Amino acid sequence: MTTVPGRRSSTFTRLLRHGFTDPAAAERLLDLPALASVRTDPVLLDALGATADPDLALRGLVRLVEAEDADERQMLLDTLVSAKPLRDRLLGVLGASEALGDHLARHPRHWQALVMYEATDLHPGVAEFEHELGGAHDPDTLRIAYRRCLLAIAARDVCGTRDVAETAAELADLATATLRAALAIARTAAPADAALCRLAVIAMGKCGGHELNYVSDVDVIFVAEPVDSSEESKAIQAATRLAAHMMRICSETTVEGTIWPVDANLRPEGRNGPLVRTLSSHLAYYQRWAKTWEFQALLKARPVAGDPELGAEYVEAVSPMVWQAADRENFVGDVQKMRRRVVDNIPADRVDREIKLGPGGLRDVEFAVQLLQLVHGRSDATLHSGSTLDALRALAEGGYVGRVDAAQFDDAYRFLRAMEHRIQLYRLRRTHLVPEDESDLRRLGRSLGMRTDPIAEINQAWKRHASVVRRLHEKLFYRPLLDAVAQLAPGETRLSAKAAEVRLEALGYADPTTALRHLEALSSGVSRKAAIQRTLLPVLLGWFADSADPDAGLLGFRKVSDALGKTPWYLRLLRDEGAAAENLARVLSAGRLAPDLLLRAPEAVAILGDPQGLKPRSRNHLEQEVLAAVGRAEDAESAVAVVRGVRRRELFRTTAADLIGSYGTEENPAEPDHGALVDRVGNAVTDLNAVTIAGALRAVVREQWGDTLPTRFAVIGMGRFGGHELGYGSDADVLFVHAPREGVDEQEAARAANTVVAEMRRLLQLPTADPPLIIDADLRPEGKSGPLVRTLKSYDAYYRRWSLVWESQALLRAELMAGDADLGRAFIELIDPLRYPMEGLGEDAVREIRRLKARMESERMPRGADPTLHTKLGRGGLSDVEWTVQLLQMQHGWVEPGLRTTRTREALAAACAAELISGEDAQTLDEAWVLATRVRNAVMLVRGRPADTFPSGPRELTAVGRYLGYEPGHVGDMLDDYRRITRRARAVVEERFYGA
Q: What does the DSSP assignment read for 673-727?
């Protein structure tokens, strides 16, 4: 074709119009002698333009024509332009699969397999494929025959003759025929082995389920028995050799490539177990050792090759165990583990392109269907299907899944499988990644019928269907539960009450009967409130089930809904603010403390919908609110009631933020820096308690003395309070100091100060709906025997004359928390020389501190407590770390300013910076201190009361584990990790504190 320079030929323009992306190269190919007889035929150009990739189709056609013998070449071209069925099939395959184009170039006569189809050719089964593979006598001829069959399947697929489910079934039937042919080759090669044993091949996974991909591992299990009087051990050895040879025939790469890997890792004990077992050996394993996922895998077991009677015996024997799996003791825990997507091993840059394992991917659909089969299949044999789509249809017909949901799930699954098929078909490689290259995306979109803007259309359709799967994944489990109790549409098939209870129990609800009553109370009726609840509950139930105590979560949600159901903003908040509903579900199902705080004033749920709501408020902000409220109150009791209400609200804010940060949500992963979580809680609770004490102090003074107390008064925080390390269950350790105002009698000042303290403590501990704040002054001079309040001069006199080394150590945590700032600063100046003595501690003082620590370890550990798991006094626990850090502070604080802090972690970091302790040792101590603190916080969150040890109840222990980041079933790992981390810390303590 010649054209005027600078002008495009009419062919070039037509090629562009027909979808060629490189019309210049296409024009050159059409000019080749091989296509001389058809280059101007408009039918050919139209047919090429209808393929997924016209450029690829033309290149493949040229290679095929050039590979043909000269006398066959013209027949191919004549048939191509005259027979539309062949034209559509051949060019359709060449435009969708580079790999099959390569196969045709090596075996050009195979195009004739596409010339015409008989009725059986349109719906081939195992028998037809066995006939096609019948002439194969070695691995190479088997590969050639297999690809010829695959060529025909691909042609029917790309031309739309067969839908995606039918194509997957054909691929599974072809795999069955191929396994039989491979086993026949292996038996022919080893007739002596074949004579010794009966061997059956059981297909698993997608092959067993009749839903195979173009390129996929074919999962199998082998079962064998001796023939007649053969010795069992010799028969199993012979069967193992046959099975291994069969696997090699399919898996190994020859000059004709490979077929697919045969994977036997689903067998008992996986790759560590024998390749072949007898039937009795299989059954013994499944009865004693098998895990829930293994029974889930057996859902798809199907005999496909070898001895048909033995294969049928195997399936008949294991089937009852599959359908009884939901009765197993550990089924709920296993289900909770399986329900979490296994995406951790997918590289971060691939997660968003994973069509199988990613969020909203094929695995979500398959898992959801299989779980529902396991739960309900024990009482309904119609659900006993290995096919995902057949099982989904049966679930819908039985009322186990809503019909609309099932239809949407079916549609999404078919689309995602079609995408997967076309992605793999291109190069016949095993992949589940959506391509990034625009040319690949364009081919993929066009292969699925998207021609206007294939790249944009395929991305939009993929995201839409993945979103449907994500949205329905949880609702598929829970929406039928609501239909079972809501009773809105008479005559519609719905879940029975018994089936609903079975499902709830399988998903972790300990009391499904009560759970159903809650659902009925929340969702029944035709009110707008009930309608919104029916929208919310399917998702909320899934989040509850994801926790350690789903029943508590649902009960808490009902209580909150009962309290707030009539307020217009509550359900609107949960429906419209995406994070609010999930945050509420996490908070309600994670333990007792946060729900108790919320249910005392349910309107605090609004905090969960505010993007800034979970951030702790500053002490200044809180103090302004509290003091303003005190100023408006009529008396001290009502003022402190308001103050305690603020404290309760802010405690809820802190617990909610802690739980959500520890658990993570769908949008925001869990906080990886556990030290930051601990510091956030410690600072928030400390600020809150300081403000509460300041408000109570102002209220008491205002009621009895007006604006001015006869004596200046300050509250000094001690212990964890002074160290900004308070947990949820911590008392507020304090010292009270006062200084009479000018002209005021000392006795009058002392009476006033003691009255203030007594009234503050009373008001902060009055039985009310709000949690009390216990003020503990036992760290004062002379302990419980000494006066509750002292003047600054009295403290000075005592410390100069009587102070013991432990009191100087306790003062390391002293910090002003409320009251007269100048007086507080004067107190701090008074004690600094005691806690940071010049030249550090003498040897006697160090020995005394070590003696006190050893005595405390031996005398104060509760009877029967496990010292390896006691967070405060146990090995490597809080006391060990804090006394080690405090010894460094007292020895070096006089010369190292960074050590002059009340906070353990700050002091430890300063000691490391000053090279007083190695970075490795500092890290070891810090890790143990943070972990022990988190365990104490977790126990309080879960149980609603403080404790220094792990709870003994399995549900509470699991809840503590979830807070700490351990999945269900990994409580043992949590305890082992705690012991390991604290054991290492204790080794550092032995060296750094005891000088061992």
A: -HHHHHHHHHHHHHHHHHHHHHHHHHHHHHHHHTT--SEEEEEEE-HHHHTT---
Q: Give the integer Cα–Cα distance in Å for 573 and 557.
A: 14
Q: Give the C-alpha separation, 615 to 612, whole Å.
A: 6
Distances (CA, A) of 19 to 13, 59, 94, 316, 439: 10, 14, 15, 54, 12
- Following DSSP, what letter does each residue of 590-609 receive, concatenated? S-SHHHHHHHTSGGGGGGGG
User: Residue 118 has what pLDDT?
Assistant: 62
For 332, the token pair is 């709920």
For the stretch 619-637, pLDDT in tens is 999 999 999 999 999 999 9
CA-atom Rg of the chain in angstroms = 38
DSSP assignment, residue 433?
Answer: B
pLDDT at 165: 96
Considering only CA atoms, which of 527, 968, 564 is closest in space to residue 584?
A: 564
Mean pLDDT of the chain: 91
- The number of angstroms, rounded, from the C-alpha of 647 to the middle of its chain's C-alpha atoms is 33
Based on the number of CB atoms within 10 Å of its own CB, is 285 exposed (0-12), middle (13-18) or buried (19 or more)?
A: middle
The string of DSSP letters for 237-285 reads HHHHHHHHHHHHHHHS-BTTB----EE-TTSTTGGGS-SEE-HHHHHHH
* H-assigned helices in 97-201: 98-106, 119-122, 126-133, 139-158, 164-189, 191-196
pLDDT for 89-120, tens place per residue? 999 999 999 999 999 999 999 999 898 666 55
Do the beta carbons of residue 335 and residue 546 sit within 8 Å?
A: no
| DSSP string of 194-249, one letter each residue | HHHEEEEEEE-HHHHTT---SS--EEEEEEEEE-TT--HHHHHHHHHHHHHHHHHH
Question: What's the confidence (pLDDT) of residue 567?
Answer: 84
Q: Which of 111-120, 696-705, 770-779 has the lowest mean pLDDT?
A: 111-120
DSSP strand pairing (815-819 vs 711-717):
antiparallel
Measure the CA angle with vertex 972, ends 971 and 973; round to 5°.
90
Instruction: Choose the weakest-confidence range: 22-36, 317-331, 380-394, 832-846.
Output: 317-331
Alpha-carbon gap, residue 53 to 110, rounded angstroms: 21
pLDDT band at residue 666, thresholds of 50, 70 and 90? confident
Residue 844 CA to residue 189 CA, distance in Å, equals 87
On whether the CB atoms of residues 137 and 185 are closer than 8 A, the answer is: yes
**For 578-587, 592-601, 740-749, 940-949, which range has the lowest pLDDT when averaged over its residues?**
578-587
Task: Count CB atoms within 10 A of the CB of residue 211.
Answer: 25
Of the pLDDT bands very low, low, confident and very high (cuts 50, 70, 90), residue 483 is low
pLDDT tens digits, one per residue of 286-311: 999 998 889 999 999 999 999 999 99
Give the distance, in angstroms, between the CA of residue 947 and the centroid of all CA atoms in the same chain: 29
d(CA 996, CA 596): 47
Give CA angle at 678 (673, 680), nearest 5°: 95
Place of tokens 């493949």: 60
- Tokens 């609010």 correspond to 580
DSSP for 323-372, please give it. Answer: HTGGGSTTHHHHHHHHHS---TTS-HHHHTTBSSSSTTSHHHHHHHHHHH
- Alpha carbons 713 and 650: distance in angstroms, whole number: 26
**Size (the chain), residues:** 996
Tell if the pTM clears 0.85, that is, is over it.
no
CB atoms within 10 A of CB 229: 5
